[in-house]
Amino acid sequence: MQLQQTVKSFIRPGEQGGYVAECLEVSVVTQGETLDEVVKNLQEALALHLEGEDPGDFGLVSHPAILVTFELQPRYA
């Protein structure tokens, strides 16, 4: 089995404002008020989730990159 180089994640607007980030391969979900904050929180949450674990158990290489897809609503004038 080939190990994944990236963890795929998705960031979308939160229902109450801010943003929600969710990883697709591992059970990590976090939120933040700004895009910068939610990305920082995503990095920290993923690091904590994998801390003390073998990333290979999740099909990941050691120290995988995070691939982020944003869902943004267009703003009309």
From TrEMBL:
Q: What is this protein called?
A: Type II toxin-antitoxin system HicB family antitoxin
Q: Which organism is it from?
A: Pseudocalidococcus azoricus BACA0444
